[in-house]
Amino acid sequence: MRAVTILDRETSCPSCGAPVRFAFAGARAVVCGHCRFVVARTDRGLQAVGRMADLLAIPTPLQVGVDGRWRGNAFVVEGRVQMDRTDAPSAPWQEILLSLPELGQLWWIAYAQGRWYLTKEEPAPPGGLPPVDALRPGMQIDLGPHGLWVVQEVGWRRVVSGEGSLPNVPAPGALTRYADISGPKGRFGTLDYGDGRAPPTLFLGGLVDPRELTLSSGAPLEAPKAQAAAMECPNCGGNLPMLTGQAERVVCQYCGTASDVTGGKLAALGPLPRPPVEPAIALGRQGKLHDEPVICVGFMVRACWVEGERYAWREYLLFVPPSGGAEQTAAVGGAFRWLMEEDGKWQWVKPLEVGDVRDHGQSVELGGAVYRWKQQVTAVTEHVVGEFYWKVEQGEQVEATEFQGAAGIVSRERAPTEVVYSLCTRMRWRDIATGFGLPVGAAPPGGGQSARAVLGVVFIVIILAVIVVAATTMDGCAVGGFFFGGGGGK
Length: 490
Ligand SMILES: [Zn+2]
Ligand SMILES: [Zn+2]
What we know:
Layout: H1 2-9, E1 10-12, E2 19-21, E3 29-31, E4 37-42, E5 45-51, E6 67-70, E7 73-85, E8 88-100, E9 105-112, E10 115-122, E11 140-142, E12 148-166, E13 175-182, E14 187-194, E15 201-208, E16 213-215, E17 230-232, E18 239-241, E19 249-251, E20 257-262, E21 265-271, E22 286-289, E23 292-306, E24 309-320, E25 335-342, E26 345-351, E27 357-359, E28 363-366, E29 369-388, E30 397-405, E31 408-415, E32 418-427, H2 429-436, H3 448-471
Antiparallel strand pairs: 1-2, 3-4, 3-12, 4-5, 6-7, 6-16, 7-8, 7-12, 8-9, 9-10, 10-15, 11-12, 12-13, 13-14, 14-15, 17-18, 19-20, 19-29, 20-21, 22-23, 23-24, 23-29, 24-25, 25-26, 26-32, 27-28, 28-29, 29-30, 30-31, 31-32
């Protein structure tokens, strides 16, 4: 019998005849290294079921064949799958298959926005998984023995490329549905609905501290070196420092040309109009806020319309470099923060784990504290410049809701496919200026004349609002919405 097993695992590609090997007992597919066809083990023997595109240049220290240890258990990298989302085809990512032979387990590891995630297939709860059409970003789902989870993202994706041995049979190019879910304390999971013909599968896991994984070379697991330190603007040739290593879209601060970062280069998309105001904190400026070293890497002007009146505010994307902040154990690639300024009032905006927030619609709970619904607007991105970790677009819209609590404001930004929460706390310009080594006594930053012009109107509106609130019930929800100070966590 043993000989048969070995023969079964070492075979030849039905498409091109090259030798292929199913690396572990449960492998159902292997990508032929010669012709790139997916070779599947089926009831009727081996079948070539579609051809993978060439691998995309997404760097990783976890190449197929690399081995090491995770929490004392040996692992070996057996395969990887590269995917993209249908709403962001130029932002592919990859998931890497680790086999832990001593435990008989398979884990998927992925790197995104400075963090490593590990997930493993788990049995669906007794009642099955909820239908994908019922899922909305921000809603809570009960996975029985696996506990309560929050839907973070719902979308369509497809397999673009891959290599090595895989526990399932991917169909290159086929659109499949998925939902990413988030639980407390960095737990993470995915519901894979496939093409809808088979029951969905559940993958659960969480953030992993990269120090728990060591490669046999003795090297620690480091962030993939994805980008050069600087790139040239494809339009004006300006030198654009790549400060985060995670940029997906860059808008040149000199000429306004938007570019995508693909394959280690910038590909121009086209010009964007320049922001009407200069950022109060220059791009590339370094500082220290809340004991974290930060670099200003992006600037946005966003606005909303309330009863025919436009209210604009400005947001600064800050990058905390690797091992810079206080909570860097799981974020080897650094972390992001925001500063938000409206009419000279500043907020420090820190992204939250979706799974740490309990969203009840009219209120949210965070760390045992309750934040109550304050206002909701549609926030539109009007101007952007700098480097961003997502495919930022002019005109991008999200439903932005604020919940007020004692510790500050929980901001929820919701798009049809995704939800993001942030905690916003007031900050004085004096402290920001000191942190960045800027003059404290400078003119109110950012706002400029347009903000001053609406200020008078806003005061009248506030007075009216106060009167209306006083005249109605204790619950002021119905009249809220004049001042929006939404955070921009993405
Ligand atoms: Zn082949
Ligand atoms: Zn340029």
